[in-house]
Design brief:
By secondary structure, the chain is α/β, with parallel strands linked by helices. The chain is built from five helices and twelve strands. It is about 25% helix and about 30% strand. The strands form three sheets. Strands 5-4-1-6-9-10-11-12 form an eight-stranded mixed sheet, with helices on both faces. Bound molecules: cytidine-5'-triphosphate (CTP) and calcium ion.
């Protein structure tokens, strides 16, 4: 496995990464979630580490072990991830939101397991906070804020809207309907977009290579 491309351009930088799929429990045994495995965020953390950064990884439930050298914070829900991100954000230079945040949560949590015959036919839902948009509001000029957009069909237009609406410096538009990309895969592909209008397409490659391409791309964003 190639962990390094030899670049040490993140020495002295603090990189904050979120990854994995957040979970919103209805009762102790059932949740709303998504198929994210967190491997893209792991690759980003490894790439940043090998480029010399101090790395913090805020992760939703994952099945792999966080490599040594990376500061890990485990969370479950979007609210917990948001709180952890907001706490770490002021100290970070580069922030990558690679987590797949469950967009909604059950309006109510039942602390005792519901027997299936008591499960409702429809489930009242509430939106969870948009963590990345909140970070965009708080962003300082020296900080570089990067999002991911997992999309099907036309990936560029919705990703550009997210870039603008959430006040990001860059976004990785990620086609999840292409073979060997997206959830759970060891490979991925993306179109990187930045707020200056640059657009770079990355052909399918390992998630680690894609992570290095992303740090190469954002290294070239002019600071305001
Ligand atoms: N994101 C977030 N908090 C949320 C939802 C999304 O921080 N509650 C972040 C994701 O981590 C990702 C980016 O926003 O970096 C885009 O996520 P995406 O799901 O593509 O966008 P949404 O704004 O949730 O819009 P939709 O799901 O309707 O496409
Ligand atoms: Ca979403």
């Amino acid at each position: 496995l190639l962990h390094t491309n030899g670049k040490r351009d993140l020495v002295g930088k603090r990189v904050l990464i979120s990854t994995g799929g957040t979970q919103e429990y209805l009762d102790p045994v059932r949740f709303i979630g998504n198929p994210s495995t967190g491997k893209m965020g792991l690759a980003l953390a490894q790439a940043a580490l090998h480029r010399g950064a101090t790395v913090t990884l805020i992760h939703a439930p994952i099945t792999w072990e966080v490599p040594s050298g990376i500061r890990a914070i485990a969370v479950v829900s979007a609210a917990q991830m948001g709180q952890a991100m907001l706490e770490c954000f002021p100290d970070a230079d580069v922030i990558v939101m690679a987590a797949a945040v469950a967009d909604v949560k059950p309006a109510e949590y039942t602390p005792e397991k519901l027997p299936k015959k008591l499960l409702p036919n429809s489930l009242p839902l509430e939106p969870v906070p948009d963590i990345l948009a909140e970070l965009g509001q708080r962003k300082q000029p020296h900080q570089c804020l990067i999002g991911f957009a997992a999309q099907t069909g036309d990936i560029v237009k919705p990703a550009l809207e997210k870039l603008r609406n959430k006040k990001l410096d860059a976004i990785a538009a990620n086609p999840i309907d292409k073979p060997n990309s997206g959830f759970g895969s060891d490979t991925n592909q993306a179109i990187f977009l930045d707020k200056q209008g640059r657009q770079v397409e990355i052909e399918p490659c390992s998630k680690l290579q894609l992570a290095h391409h992303l740090f190469d791309f954002v290294g070239n964003i002019p600071r305001e």
